[in-house]
Amino acid sequence: MLRFGNPGPSHGKLTRYKATPTLLEVCAKYGITPDNTHEIFQFEFEMPSELVQLTSPSCRTPDKPNVVKLREEVQEISEFFAKHALTPPSIKHIGWVRKFHLSDHPDFRWNKGGRLYSQPPTKDANYQNIDKNARLKMEIDDEPVAEIDIGSSYLTIFYAWNDKQLDPEQDAYKGILHSQRSRSCMHTQLLCR
Fold first, then answer.
1. Degrees, nearest 5: CA angle 168-173-175
2. Which of 19, 105, 146, 185 is least enclosed by beta carbons within 10 angstroms?
3. What is the pLDDT of residue 3?
């Protein structure tokens, strides 16, 4: 079994090693390729020590009350999901980290990024890195998953912001826009939010 321990520093860059063509050739003689290493070797991953990370540029995450709250939220989400079974077993998920970008931007208020990233961040075993068809074959507690297209929900969100109910039987733009040009403008504005 290969153990990776803590998968690197909480900030900065990781050292990466690349197999030489000679090593790949020797491994191929024994039936080992980059595509089947997870089938041949058993990997054990651990969560990074920092659950809230600042990237682009990478820097140490401060210990401030709002960051402590963010860490607790990420930990709570990860603990909740750990109680459920994700299948197929080829997909690995041990928790999330939350990454914020542009931390050196003058307007940064923990509002640049903040996306949850599944751990371990492997190319072929992480559900966020596999193609959509493979993701749709996943199950949580023997129940099929579904993907929601948030991009198609902007108009519904707009209605909710304005305390209005969207009527699926009517033209959704009727009553809030006065021309075709307004419709195009509104669609652009919703996408830019």
1. 100
2. 146
3. 44
Is pLDDT above 80 for 94?
yes
Instruction: Determine the Cα–Cα distance for residues 132 and 34; give it in Å rounded to an integer.
Output: 22
pLDDT at 55: 84
Helix (H, G, I), strand (E, B) or coil at 48: coil
Query: Which of left, alpha, beta for 163 (phi over 0: left; psi -120 to 50: alpha)?
Result: left
Q: Do residues 171 and 179 touch, judged by C-beta distance below 8 A? A: no
Give the pair of three-digit tokens for residue 157: 């969100």
Of 74 and 122, which is predicted with more confidence?
74
More confident position, 67 or 3: 67
Beta bridge partners of 116: 98
Which residues, 6+ apart, have CB-to-CB distance to 143 below 8 Å?
none
Kindly report the pTM of this predicted structure.
Answer: 0.67
Q: Is 124 exposed, middle or buried (0-12, 13-18, 19+ CB in 10 A)?
A: middle
- With beta carbons less than 8 A apart as the criterion, state whether 73 and 92 touch: no
